[in-house]
Amino acid sequence: MSRYYEFFCPVKVIAGQAALEHLPYELTGIASTRPMIVTDQGVRSAGLLDPVISACQESDVVIAAIYDEVPPDSSTTTVRDIANLYRQQQCDALIAIGGGSSIDTAKAVNILVSEGGDDIAEYSGAGVLTRPLRPFFVIPTTAGTGRSSYRSPRRSCCPMPPSSIPG
Amino acid sequence: MFEKLTRSAALRARREYVRTMFRFMGHALEAISHADQKVKDDARVLPEGFIFQMMVLPSGPSLILEHTGQGVLRYLGSDYDGRIDLSIRFKHMAHAFLVLSFQEKTTEAFANDRMVVDGDIGYGVRMTRILNRLESVILPRLIASRAVKEYPADLGLLEKVPGAIGVYRRVLTGFIRDLRKEALPL
Predict the structure, then answer these.
(1) How close does chain A come to B91, measured CA to CA in Å?
(2) pLDDT at B162 exceeding the cut of 90
(3) Within 13 A of A4's CA, how many CA atoms are on the CB side?
(4) Average pLDDT, chain A
(5) Measured between alpha carbons, how far is residue A13 from residues A22, A26, A167, B167 in Å?
(6) d(CA A100, CA B36)
(7) How many Å is the Cα radius of gyration of chain B?
(8) Which of A128, A145, B51, B57 is the most exposed, having the fewest neighbouring CB atoms within 10 Å of its CB?
(9) 3-state SS assignment for residue B13
(10) Helices B37-44 and B121-138 sit at what angle, rounded to 10 degrees?
């Protein structure tokens, strides 16, 4: 057995009855007024966005932008498009709703909108991120291992800094 | 489309329910502070002029009470822009509805992080005890047991029924007074 280990995963997890309705308070708590939702068509057409939008509206939180075309196998182009929309709409937080594809894409978008640039591939490698990332929320709609709340993305092309985890 | 309209109507109904319950509780707390010795004993410790607020974030509805001394509370309505000494704020309308429709006990709601308490925690606990006492007295035992942490074992029908009648009578008078004020604002 190892005589040393480190564990670092300071993610706030909110689950259970009426958990979704905590989102507006959490957004207000970090002074976010223009959050952006990143999701896919499947989630949208299933009506899973409605309770999120409704919970926010009821608390006077306006969703500034919604990107709902994340493909099952996302790409650097998708990441760039979403980052551009985020900048155009002057958003200040990201909410990923869906499965791994939406969540990982939103994580990559977060790097671009926080660090600048248009190509996520430029941020491959360890220790390349120098700035704190934007506030990031995840509403998973699929059953999983909870790996999305951890630092490593699904593909190991760009190791994530501690600040990329949802919080 | 129909689903959206139904949902929107349900949300409006929920907001109105919470608003009405806050108004009811305001009048009922004032009423019980005149009649119930246990409430008086708890409220007496609060400083005179102490202002208590319960509200739903970010902008209401709300209820405001003032301790006028000797354990007596006065309902100030929902519009008050003065100093607040203790505020219990629900994070969302849905959370307030869970508590006010007796689906979640107040203590459970605290534990589930549904509310933010701003002010002296000791006074907050005291006000929660007063709210629990009110619910125990005015609600049928079956419903009150769902609303409070522990239904008081020593609260018999001989104490409960006259207490409840007194509170409902004063609440009714308060509601009529409010309606008159709203109809004739000057």
Answers:
(1) 6
(2) no
(3) 0
(4) 85
(5) 11, 11, 8, 42
(6) 57
(7) 16
(8) A145
(9) helix
(10) 170
Give A36's strand partners.
Answer: A65, A94
The pLDDT, as a whole number, for residue B183 is 79
Phi, psi dihedral angles at B176 (to 5 degrees)? -65, -40
Please list the residues that pair with B72 across neighbouring strands.
Answer: B69
Q: Hey, are the CB atoms on A24 and B91 less than 8 Å from each other? A: yes
Query: Does B89 reach chain A within 8 Å, measured CB to CB?
Result: no
Phi and psi angles of residue A35, each rounded to the nearest 5 degrees, phi first: -75, 155
Best probe of the A interface among B91, B116, B117, by most A CBs < 10 A, is: B91
For residues A32-53, give the mean pLDDT.
92
Closest CA–CA distance from residue B57 to any residue of chain A (Å): 7
Q: How confident is the model at residue A161 (pLDDT cuts 50, 70, 90)?
A: very low
Q: For the packed helices B2-35 and A50-58, what is the interaxial angle rounded to 10 degrees?
A: 40
- Residue A15 corresponds to which amino acid? A
Contacts of A31 in chain B (CB under 8 A): none
The single-letter code of the amino acid at B73 is L
Structure tokens at A73: 């196998």
Asked if B57 and A21 come within 8 Å (Cβ–Cβ), the reply is: no
Please name which of A55, A85, A50, A90 lies closest in space to residue A70, comparing C-alpha atoms: A85
Distance of CA A131 to the CA centre of its chain: 17
Structure tokens at B16: 């109105």
Amino acid identity for residue A7 in this structure: F
The token pair at B107 is 């203590």
Rounded-to-integer distance, Cα A59 and Cα A51, Å: 13
Q: Is this model's pTM higher than 0.95 or not?
A: no
